[in-house]
């Protein structure tokens, strides 16, 4: 509904169909859309008196092509405050890095899901500026499909992985629950890769990204002439994945009528395309995920009880990152190693001040958000180690001096870097290791020396040289 408060989105795109799609989508959230067909026209509009009314810019990278980053810099110069999102068909992390360094706020890969685009617009324009930078950008990095990529030692997380690994080798359907960003999709893919159907067809469907009618045709297929616009027969994913696995992400966002139809297929093993007179038998294993506790949705009448029964023989809960904060150091180092492998980036380490800051945040976006924040910090940090200064948005949210005591209690132990990102002196690190060992083995110096791989006399000499109190 248009009001005086309606925000104006400038869309730089010369493709009419996509312009209509984006405009209609943005209108759902109260945006008016100004479509321009070239970078030159966009810059002219921004320089005009009414250019100040533009609240966000969405640029299709195809329009300026190789000059996209130059256009981003020009727009950023003209309007340093306006959020700028780039839409592209390229999956190159190098392009993401260049676009962000040029001034892009976010980077969306086509085909972009409607909810992802709307989420990016919301995040880029919300009032709380520090959170503007904490956006999901996991599509910039390749997805690893095995359990080895699931990093963490927290008991609830290891329990979930153990249950998933066992279930993967079975034959039944299953349901993975957990907040957005906890790694449900990654777990679904890892389970398929570890299953007996790993070499059979597999498709992942984002149930929340499609209208009900489109999702219905995608899953079940339709016959030619089944409805207005059905000019050809469409093979559904149940038919395509026969003998394989269908991954249903965000199944809780599926329309109730489709949930009931899905329950029919699971119970009977027969799928009938829309408009078909007869169905056919299929053998498809379903791995589903939900951001919300499905049992509660069933109780509220918002989810099919039959579908829940069909999927819930095995239920796996992925814990939120705030419930496994002790995994942040290992996750951070894992993500930094993966980010460092991408073109245009190099491998960063993490200083104590940076890690302390990460551990002090509650991560409402969970592991996906942690990865996004590390990716953004790696893009802009020129020093070898990420420090607290590498995360200005988190620093602004949390203040300049989050408590370090909790980080140490979670096992950070020996600090390798000073707050400015430089390595500490070797003797200082050695002294910390010895102190840590003495505390860990409760002053049993013979055991300390044995675990450190040195003689007892050498240990006492080092205590003296390093000025460590003799606590034996």
CATH architectural name of the largest domain:
3-Layer(aba) Sandwich
Query: Counting H and I runs of at least 4 residues, what is the number of helices?
Result: 20
The N- to C-terminal Cα distance equals: 75 Å
**Cross-sheet strand order for the largest sheet:** 2-1-3-4-5
Rg, alpha carbons: 26 Å
Q: Give the low-pLDDT segments.
A: 127-138, 404-412
Beta-strand residue percentage: 5-15%
Approximate shape: flat
Range of helix content: 40-55%
CATH class of the largest domain: Alpha Beta
Number of strands: 14
- Number of structurally distinct domains: 4
- Outline the biggest β-sheet: 5 strands, parallel
CATH topology of the largest domain: Rossmann fold
Average pLDDT, all residues = 83
Main location: cytoplasm
Modified residues (4-aspartylphosphate): 60
GO molecular function: ATP binding; sequence-specific DNA binding
Subcellular location: Cytoplasm
Please supply descriptive tags for the structure shown above.
472 residues, flat, transcription regulation, ATP binding, alpha/beta, Rossmann fold, 4 domains, Homeodomain-like_sf, cytoplasm, five-stranded parallel beta sheet, phosphoprotein, Helicase, Ruva Protein, domain 3, 14 strands
């Amino acid at each position: 509904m248009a009001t005086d408060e309606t925000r104006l989105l400038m869309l730089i795109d010369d493709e009419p169909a996509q312009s209509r799609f984006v405009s209609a989508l943005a209108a759902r959230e109260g945006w008016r859309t100004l479509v321009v067909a070239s970078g030159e026209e966009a810059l002219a509009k921004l320089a005009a008196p009414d250019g100040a009314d533009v609240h966000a810019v969405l640029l299709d990278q195809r329009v300026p092509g190789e000059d996209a980053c130059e256009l981003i810099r020009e727009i950023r110069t003209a309007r340093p405050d306006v959020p700028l999102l780039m839409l592209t068909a390229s999956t190159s992390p190098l392009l993401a890095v260049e676009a962000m360094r040029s001034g892009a706020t976010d980077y969306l890969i086509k085909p972009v899901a409607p909810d992802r685009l709307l989420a990016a617009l919301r995040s880029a324009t919300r009032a709380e500026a520090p959170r503007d930078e904490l956006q999901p950008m996991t599509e910039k990095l390749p997805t690893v499909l095995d359990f080895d990529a699931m990093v963490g030692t927290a008991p609830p997380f290891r329990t979930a992985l153990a249950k998933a690994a066992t279930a993967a080798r079975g034959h039944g359907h299953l349901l993975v629950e957990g907040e957005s960003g906890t790694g449900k999709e990654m777990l679904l893919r890892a389970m398929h890769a570890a299953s007996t159907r790993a070499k059979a067809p597999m498709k992942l469907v984002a149930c929340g990204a499609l209208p009900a009618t489109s999702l219905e045709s995608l899953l079940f297929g339709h016959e030619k002439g089944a409805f207005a616009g059905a000019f050809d027969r469409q093979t559904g994913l149940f038919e395509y994945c026969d003998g394989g696995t269908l991954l249903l992400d965000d199944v809780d966002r599926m329309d109730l009528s489709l949930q009931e139809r899905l329950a029919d297929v699971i119970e009977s093993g027969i799928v009938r395309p829309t408009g078909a007179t007869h169905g056919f038998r299929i053998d498809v294993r379903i791995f589903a995920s939900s951001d919300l506790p499905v049992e509660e949705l069933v109780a509220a009448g918002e989810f099919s009880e039959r579908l829940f029964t069909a999927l819930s023989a095995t239920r796996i809960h992925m814990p939120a990152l705030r419930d496994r904060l002790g995994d942040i150091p290992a996750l951070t180092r894992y993500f930094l190693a993966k980010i460092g492998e991408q073109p245009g980036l190099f491998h960063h380490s993490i200083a104590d001040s940076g890690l302390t800051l990460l551990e002090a945040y509650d991560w409402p976006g969970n592991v996906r958000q942690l990865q996004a924040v590390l990716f953004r910090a790696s893009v802009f940090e020129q020093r070898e180690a990420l420090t607290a200064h590498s995360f200005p948005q988190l620093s602004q949210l949390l203040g300049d001096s989050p408590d370090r005591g909790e980080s140490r209690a979670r096992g950070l132990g020996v600090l390798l870097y000073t707050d400015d990102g430089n390595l500490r002196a070797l003797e200082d690190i050695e002294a910390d290791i010895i102190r840590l060992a003495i505390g860990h083995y409760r002053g049993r110096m013979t055991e300390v020396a044995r675990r450190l791989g040195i003689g007892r006399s050498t240990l006492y000499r080092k205590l003296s040289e390093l000025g460590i109190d003799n606590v034996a």
